[in-house]
From TrEMBL:
Signal peptide: none annotated. GO terms for biological process: molybdopterin cofactor metabolic process. Residues 83-203 form the Aminotransferase class V domain. It comes from Triparma laevis f. longispina. This is Aminotransferase class V domain-containing protein.
């Protein structure tokens, strides 16, 4: 609403009510602004429908539970009045998951899987089942790999790089937008005499300035950027590095389309 229009309304208000207290004038002015703003702002459903129309892939429509709009309020009641932006680093469990976990914990007794006895056996069955499902998801040849459960990504990369056969001819290659857990791997590379090179995802995809190592080397490729959501062309990057005689079997067998 324009200032001139507001002024006319206030003049009309003054002619009817005389010298009303100043707070009354401010209240009327605020009410008029709110009414005007509501007229300009489309209803929430209209804006949501417009967003979905422009972004048809939004909503996890192909999942078993259906689109997110049909279950989010029930599965994540704690998010009704807040926005959670760290799901990539610390995903929140669903309400149904917590309920099933509590039910199973009350119904069954689970012990140390490294011990013996019925309670330990139940835990070992769950661990083995989880390991089998993860290996089958990421590899067409699960028998060729072992899966180690760790506390987080930093711990996993530390175990991987500390046991890798780096030499003075090895190169550890990582992109600019790497997580801090990747940057910490450089200490293990340095300790074993290797060197590292930082490249952009664009350089990796185009095959620009790819070094030719003289020994066993490692390339780290984040499939999706946590900040921007950009998905790297892993197949193309793997092809470029194979051209430099750098083996990358993980890229070949990982089912990246399932992410």
């Amino acid at each position: 609403m324009e200032i001139r229009t507001l002024g006319k309304v206030l003049e009309l208000f003054h002619s009817y009510f005389g010298s009303a207290p100043l707070p009354v004038y401010w209240s009327v002015l605020l009410l008029l602004c709110v009414i005007r703003a509501q007229r300009k702002t489309p209803p929430t459903n209209t804006r949501k429908n417009d967003f979905i129309r422009r972004n048809p892939k939004y909503g996890y429509k192909n999942t078993l539970k259906g689109p997110i709009s049909s279950w989010r309020s029930n599965e994540y009641p704690s998010l009704s009045f807040q926005i959670y932006l760290d799901n990539a680093g610390a995903a929140l469990p669903m309400k149904s998951q917590l309920e099933k976990e509590c039910e199973e914990g009350v119904r069954e007794c689970f012990g140390n899987p490294h011990s013996s006895g019925p309670s330990a056996g139940r835990t070992k069955v769950l661990v083995d089942e989880s390991r089998h499902r993860v290996l089958n998801h990421f590899s067409n040849r699960p028998r060729d790999y072992n899966l180690i459960f760790t506390s987080n990504c930093s711990s996993s990369l530390n175990k991987l790089t500390s046991s890798f056969s780096f030499t003075k001819n090895s190169i550890f290659i990582y992109p600019h937008n790497s997580h801090t857990s990747v940057l910490g791997c450089r200490e293990n590379v340095k300790r074993m005499g290797g060197r590292w090179k930082c490249m952009s995802i664009e350089e990796m995809e185009l095959g620009v300035d790819i070094p030719v190592p003289g020994g066993e080397s490692m390339v780290v490729i984040p499939v999706e950027c946590n900040f921007s959501g950009r998905v790297a062309d892993v197949s193309r990057i793997a092809k470029n590095f194979r051209g430099k005689k750098i083996e990358s079997r993980c890229c070949e067998y990982a089912k990246l389309n399932n992410f």
